[in-house]
Design a protein that fits this description.
The chain is an alpha/beta fold. 28% of the residues lie in helices and 24% in strands. 36% of the residues are buried. The N terminus is likely disordered.
Length: 202
């Protein structure tokens, strides 16, 4: 299935709007007292923050480090954990093996785990880095130019905002960006799995 395309002015408008909505949500973390709300989960210093209302993810194409590109709309029907990382940041290095393990734990579930490198070093260096960490099954994609994600104070607009590193976003099965978490987190923990399975099963 081919992803829908947008002309340049429309795409800029969509991405700018998504960035603004996600940015606004950071100041208003949704409480967890609402019935049937997602279960709480947090990293060392940040809690998983809901984006309310959830924002439709744009029809972007992901550049795979190996294999064919992936059109994000093709993942609808599954919950998706999107993790942005960089090889030069130690917390990202510690989190990647956990994501590799998470991929194995949830292979049979309606949940996709993808990791997107923001390294500008190039495909070969990122590939070598992944080999050193024995990352073999985790789908990895590349965003060296910041087309998909930028820091909040960076130039230009992008679908995802990086408030820190690593940075994880969760998409629901309808293809909407439901929330985010800043910082290294153990998504294989009971709490992490409970949150992901909430989105995978609703």
């Amino acid at each position: 299935m081919q992803a829908p395309t947008l002309d340049a002015p429309s795409r800029r408008f969509v991405l700018a709007g998504i960035g603004a909505l996600i940015g606004a949500s950071r100041a208003h973390a949704a409480p967890f007292s609402v019935p049937d709300a997602p279960p709480p989960f947090q990293s060392a210093g940040e809690q998983f923050t809901l984006i309310e209302p959830a924002v439709a993810a744009p029809a972007i194409r992901l550049d795979a480090i190996k294999g064919a590109p992936l059109d994000l709309p093709m993942l609808r029907g599954k919950a998706v954990l999107i993790n942005f990382w960089a090889s030069w940041y130690p917390p990202c290095v510690r989190e990647l093996p956990l994501l590799e393990r998470l991929r194995g734990l949830t292979r049979s579930e309606p949940l996709e785990i993808i990791a997107i490198s923001i390294d500008a070093a190039g495909r070969e260096r990122v590939t070598a880095f992944l080999k050193r960490l024995a990352i073999e099954h985790l789908p990895v994609y590349l965003d060296p130019a910041g087309r998909l994600a930028r820091k909040i104070d960076g130039a230009g607009v992008s679908p995802f905002v990086l408030y820190g590193m690593p940075m994880s976003y969760v998409m629901d099965r309808a293809g909407r960006i439901a929330g985010y978490l800043t910082g290294q987190a153990d998504w294989t923990s009971a709490e992490g799995l409970r949150l992901l399975r909430y989105y995978a099963n609703t």
